[in-house]
Predict the structure.
Amino acid sequence: MPGGNFGQMIQQILVILVFVAAVGYLVSLVVKQFRAKSGCATGCGKCGALDIKAIEARINEARKE
């Protein structure tokens, strides 16, 4: 089979490309984690919408009642 080695080479190249893309994605998550002010690396904006101090104040008020 003359084309057998070429097909295996293409498969190996594709696997390597997928692996490099996955490693690149993980590295970008780590970089975002260190750059994020709130400690959230997703970038969805949900973490910034939470006001932890206000939630704690509401809990403390509810305990006093």
